Each structure stands twice: as structure tokens, then as C-alpha cells.
Amino acid sequence: MPQAGLLHLLADSIGFGMIVAVFPVIFFIFMTYRMYLKNVEMSIRQAEQAEQYARILEDQSGALRESEERFRSAFNHAPIGIALVSASGTWLKVNHALCGILGYSEEELVGNDFQELIFKDDLGDTLVKIQELLSGKAASCQMEQRYLHRSGRTVWASWSVSAASEVRSNIPNLIFQLQDITDKKIAEEKLQHEATHDGLTGLPNRKHFMARLSEALDSARINPNYRVSVLFIDLDRFKFVNDSLGHLVGDQLLMRISERLRECLRPSDIVARLGGDEFTILVAGNYESDEVIRIAERIQEKFSIPFDLDGHEVFSSASIGILHASPNHASAEEMMRDADTAMYQAKRSGKARHEVFDEQMHLAARETLQIETDLRRSIENNEIYLTYQPIFSLETGRMSGVEALTRWRHPKLGEISPDRFIAIAEEIGLIGSLGEYILRQACSETVHLINAMTPETRFELSVNLSCRQFGRPDLVSEITRTLRDTRFPEGALRLEITESIFFEYQEKATEMLSEVSGLGIRIDIDDFGTGYSNLGYLIKLPISRLKIDRSFVQPIDKDGNNTGIVRTVLSLARNLGLTAVAEGIEHDHQAAALKEMGCDSGQGYYFARPMPIDELKRYIAELEGNDFLHIPMGEIPVVETLQ
Ligand code: C2E
Ligand code: CA
Ligand code: CA
């Protein structure tokens, strides 16, 4: 080692004793020097390290600055709105996107309360969520909420918020992230609106109405003072408007009607279009039953004013069923069923009116259902039979014809009026086969009787045809087949149809009736004067006789008053070269007045009631035996009798 070598050299030159004496001093100097060297070495290393640290530190603070800048830039230019909000709700920092979403500048927002821009309705939920966050119950939360844009419009935002721990305080700040979802919301709302509203009128649709009705029913269950009522509105004869003026005018009418319906409501009521020409109104809350009746009355009043549609003046009326919910109504569907029943009742009682549902109606509706089922089997069960009501010539006093009137003897319900079951047969699509059966039965029952008469005494058979039978394309060939099969002379058959056929079937009816008349069958217009006032069809069609409705005959009193309408119909018939028959003659003075006015024929209880075929045979035999003189014609001189 170099120190030992140096000591040896020293011992050689100055002697060992001297060495021993000075050694401690030398050793001390030597050690001090060595320490000095070490210190110098350490300081150099420390200086080097410090320099290294300083470099690292410098590097690091640069990186920090850079990342802070990057963060700030990311914050400022983030595509979603970001804000730092104090726990008390003050905007602390906001980025560009957030300013853009809300329409305010950074200066306008920072320092203000974020609650001012939130929709009042959404504020409650928002504050609850923030509270959960601040109390540490949740780490973050999300919701969709509405803000008020500076321009006043609504901004829908998807809002997500988390707590940002604040170093100097134990109350955290909040980091808001806001995404503008207004477009998505508008698209969603549009879809939702389309799914729950009617495209034509913009009214709520059936789905929407049923949901609201269910909600109302739920409220009524909880609160005994909460009431629920439904008005079921069905337009009368809407189909005629559609068929005669076209679908565009029909659509216009529906739109106008929906406007008028809206005008009849209280602000809390809802009107919906169920489809076609059916509308419903929901009335819910605390109100008197009379208020609902008043709504129905207002609707009827509104309908009394004609609608001007593209220059066409159109009258419309509505049948309204009213239902007040009872504890028996378990569902919205049940309520609608009963409101519908009440509406049908209003239709059957003459249309353009309202009826309030009662339990009796429910039973009647069940009976109708039973009738519908039983009617299908009535023909094969031989329950349908015909009666014949004689028709007399007022001029000659002789029986000139019989009208076949259908009867149904129901095994349980007894005799059911044709006024009731014919309408049901029409509704359930059974009128075609029923009508065919009636014609065949009438022809085959009377053919021998008619053929047995002399040409002078021969009478005609009148059979009623429902307007709906014209919906069958093979009606004419069916009639031809029936005449052939029963060998019935076509010249002795008259078919009675009502005016409505021209509005329901128009061109098709004209075509079919021309074919029928081409077969030699005559066509009479039944219940004339009760339908439409547009008489253009009378000229177009092969009609031979008008039947004056009994509602015009019955008011004719002993003094010959109330004959105005009858006179008008008679002169119309004369001008058109048609004959006329009056129905519903119950008194001799009516028969006399009609004869005096020049009405060709008459029919009514005064002469004879409808009777089954066997009774008709006896009746005719009796007439023949009595020389027909017994026919009670009052003061009317019986000019000619059946030989
Ligand atoms: P409608 O064709 O107008 O028939 C005349 C109705 O008046 C018959 O009623 C008849 O019994 C009744 N009547 C006759 N004379 C008098 C009278 O002096 N006073 C009163 N108050 N009534 C009188 P009914 O038989 O109940 O028939 C009612 C309606 O049912 C008929 O009215 C007709 O529209 C329909 N109907 C009857 N049978 C048939 C049928 O075979 N086919 C079709 N499609 N409808 C029928
Ligand atoms: Ca008739
Ligand atoms: Ca009639």
C-alpha cells in the first residue's frame, strides 16, 4: 500500500525514534487530509447529484406544465360540456362546449348559481342526486334534465356528475359533464307523439286514451271523490259523406269535427280519435254528472252548424254514449265496452242524441249478443216466418197486393221485431242469406195463391230489400234464380228499397236496379221522405212507386189537417209519372183524406194487420166471398170489387 511504503522511506531517512515522536501528528494531518479529500469527493458527488436532481426537477415541472396545459386545453375544447361547480351550486369553471350548450359566455356563468338554468320540474330530482353525491352515498350520478338556453328554448342534456376532492377543504366540488341531447329528445318525442296520436287530426289515439283512462281509474280507486266518465262519440252517416264526396272531403270533415270537439271540453278533459269516425272524451276529477251531460249537449249544438268543406255544405250529427265509472268497472276496457253500448243505444233510439249507460242497457247488450248468436241458427231452426199485410187500391177498394213482413219467433225471448233483428243481421253480415231466404219463402208461399187469381184480381207481392243486400255482387243472379226455382211470375213482384241505397252504393245501385227492373220486377221507394232531400236519383232510376212513410200519414186528423207533406209527395210522384202508396193508415178519415188527395193505394191496420200465409188465404177467400164489400172504407165509395 502506498502509505506503508512512505513510512518505510521516512524511517530510513530520519530514524525510527523521530518517527514515533512525530507519528501522531503526521497521522492526524494525514487523516485530516484524507477526510478533506473525501469531503471534497462527496461534495463533488453531491453537487453532481444536485445538478442531476435539478435537471430532473426541471424536466418534471416542464412535463407538469405541459400536462396542465394539455388538461386545460382538453377541458376547454372537450366536445362535451364540462364544468366545475362548488358544492353550494356556483359555477367555478366552465368549458367552451358548456357555454355553447347553454348559450352563455364563461363570464356570464362563472360565479352564478347553476340552479337558475335548470327547469323547475327537474330541479327536485337533480338536487336529490347531488345530495347523495355530497354525502358519499354515490360516487357519481347520471340523469336527463332540461336547461333553459339563453335564447329561452329548452335544452335537453344528459348530465353526469361526480365529486372532485378539494385538497384544502373536506367539502368536495362537483364535476358536471353535460351532453346536448335535444335533437335526440325531439326525435324521440316525435316518435312517441306519432305512436300515441292520430296522424290526421293530431288527437291522442286509442293507445294513449286507454293509458290515460287506466290512470284515471287508478286515481278513482284511491280517492273516493275522484270520478271518471267517458263519452263515446260516433258520427251518424259519416260513410255517406266519404262515399258521396270522396275521402279527401271525409278527412277534412274529421279534422273540423276534432276542432269542434276540442272547443266543447274543459281544459282538463282529453279528446281522442279511436279510429274511423269514432271519438272519445275522458272526463276525470271532481265534477257533477250534469257537467258531462252539458259536454254532450255542447257537442250536439256544435254539430247543428253545417261544415263548409271545399264549398260543400255538409251536415253531420253524432250519437253519444256516456258512461260514469262505477266500482264494478275493473278496467279501462270494461268502461269502453259500456260507453260503446250506451252509444249504440243512442244510435238505435234515432241517432243525433246521447244516452247515459245504465245496468239495464248492459243486460240489453247481452241480449243483443245472444240474439246475434241465435240469429245465425234461426233459419235452420225454422224460427223465421213471414206475415203478409194487404195493400188496397184506394180508388177501387180492391186488394192490390201484399207486403211480406218477416217475423222471428225466438224460443226463449218470444216474438222479436224485425226492426231489431234486421238491423242486427245487417251489422253481423247475415242480411245476405236472411234476405235470400225471405225472398224465396215469400215467393214460394204466395206463388200458388197469385197464380190462382184471375188477371183482374191478381195481386202483387212486395218484399223488402235491405240496402246492405246491394253490397252482394250476385244479388241480381240470386233474385233470378229464386224466381226460376219458385216459378214466381216476375211481373207480380215488387221490391221495396230505401233512399239510403243511393248514398251508400250510388253507381253500383243504379246498375243493379236497372238489371232488376230489366227482369220485369218493379221497384218502390220505402219510407219515402225520411231520408235525404237530394232527389236527383228519382229521375236516374227505374222506380215505379213511392211509399209515403207512416210518420206523414199518422198526423192526418179528422178535419183533414196536416196533409202538407203528403200532398207534396203526391204531386212529386205525379210529376215523375210514379204511383204512390200510403202506409200506416189506422183510421177511416186518413184513408178518406188520402183517397181524396189522389193517393193510389193504402196499407195499414185500418185495412188489415200483417198475417201468416194460412190466415192470408182465409182472408182472401173471405174477401172473395163477401165480394170485398166488407172492407171498411168508411165514406169512401168502393167503386170496384174483386170478382
Ligand atoms: P216497413 O217496411 O216500413 O214495414 C211497415 C211496418 O209498419 C211493418 O212493421 C208493419 O207491421 C207496420 N205497420 C203496418 N201498418 C201499420 C199501421 O197502421 N200502424 C202502425 N203503427 N204500424 C203499421 P214491421 O212488420 O214491424 O216491420 C218493421 C220494419 O222492419 C219494416 O218497415 C222493414 O223496414 C223491416 N222489415 C220487415 N220485414 C223485412 C224483411 O223481410 N226484409 C227487410 N230487409 N226488412 C224487413
Ligand atoms: Ca216496407
Ligand atoms: Ca215503410
List keywords for this structure.
about 50% helix; 4 domains; 22 helices; about 650 residues; five-stranded antiparallel sheet; binds ligand C2E; Beta-Lactamase; binds calcium ion
Describe what you observe in this structure:
With 643 residues, the protein is an alpha/beta fold. The protein has four domains: 2-71, no CATH class; 81-187, Beta-Lactamase; 197-357, Reverse transcriptase/Diguanylate cyclase domain (Alpha-Beta Plaits), CATH 3.30.70.270; 372-624, EAL domain (TIM Barrel, Alpha-Beta Barrel), CATH 3.20.20. The chain is 49% helix and 21% strand. It has 22 helices and 22 strands. Bound molecules: ligand C2E and calcium ion (CA) (2 copies). The site of one calcium ion (CA) has 4 residues, from loops.
Write the layout of secondary structure elements.
Layout (H helix, E strand, L loop, with lengths): L1 H13 L1 H62 L3 E5 L5 E4 L1 H7 L3 H4 L10 H15 L5 E9 L5 E11 L8 E8 L1 H15 L9 H17 L4 E10 L1 H8 L1 H17 L6 E6 L2 E8 L3 H15 L3 E3 L2 E3 L2 E8 L7 H17 L5 E3 L2 H20 L5 E10 L5 E12 L3 E3 L1 H10 L3 H22 L7 E5 L10 H12 L6 E6 L1 H5 L1 H13 L3 E7 L7 H5 L4 E4 L1 H4 L10 H13 L2 E4 L5 H10 L3 E2 L8 E2 H13 L18
Parallel strand pairs: 11-12, 14-16, 16-17, 17-18, 18-19, 19-20, 20-21
Antiparallel strand pairs: 1-2, 1-5, 3-4, 4-5, 6-8, 6-11, 7-8, 9-10, 13-14, 13-21, 13-22, 14-15
Helix pairs in contact: 1-2, 8-9, 14-15
Bound molecules: ligand C2E and calcium ion (CA) (2 copies).
